[in-house]
Specification:
Elements: H1 3-17, E1 23-27, E2 35-43, E3 53-61, E4 66-73, E5 82-89, E6 92-100, E7 107-112, E8 127-132, E9 135-141
Antiparallel strand pairs: 1-2, 2-3, 3-4, 4-7, 5-6, 5-8, 8-9
Length: 142
């Protein structure tokens, strides 16, 4: 399968199969700390018989704190493989970080503004994708 058609398959799986996995929440507690939280599952095609999976989450609050976290597992690629994490908003794709796979085929990217990290401002409808050497292996829509 070429790269474009593999990405289209991943996107179709994500949009059609996981539409109910995304949620947004605004928390209006007594502490006047409004929070936005977006979450999506990541799905992709099998790699040598193993189907990768994962999730992505974005949080922001009224104090300006933001967090973006992506977790992947069951990725059938060699330990140490570096995966690129991208967010696409209004047709513009931005690489926001990398995940290094463990010996178990898992890894995570955790960006927090409180730690000085550059956190992408994610909105409902944005696409998050995880790719290996330019080929998307997991994707989900917030």
């Amino acid at each position: 399968m070429n790269r474009l058609s593999r990405f289209q398959v991943v996107l179709a799986i994500t949009v059609l199969g996981l539409a109910g996995a995304t949620y947004a929440r605004a928390d209006h507690g007594d502490n006047n700390n409004n929070e936005t939280r977006l979450k999506t599952r990541l799905a992709g095609a099998a790699i040598q018989g193993k189907t990768p999976e994962g999730n992505a989450e974005f949080r922001s609050d009224s104090k300006g704190r933001m967090r973006f976290k992506v977790e992947v597992e069951n990725v059938n690629l060699p330990p140490g493989t570096m995966l690129d994490v991208s967010v696409q908003h209004n047709g513009t794709k931005q690489t926001v970080g990398q995940i290094k796979l463990s010996a178990l085929g898992e890894g995570e990217l955790d960006l927090e503004s409180q730690d000085g990290d550059t956190v992408p401002s994610v909105q409902t409808g944005d696409l998050v994708s995880v790719s290996n050497a330019g080929t998307s292996i997991l994707a989900g829509v917030f």
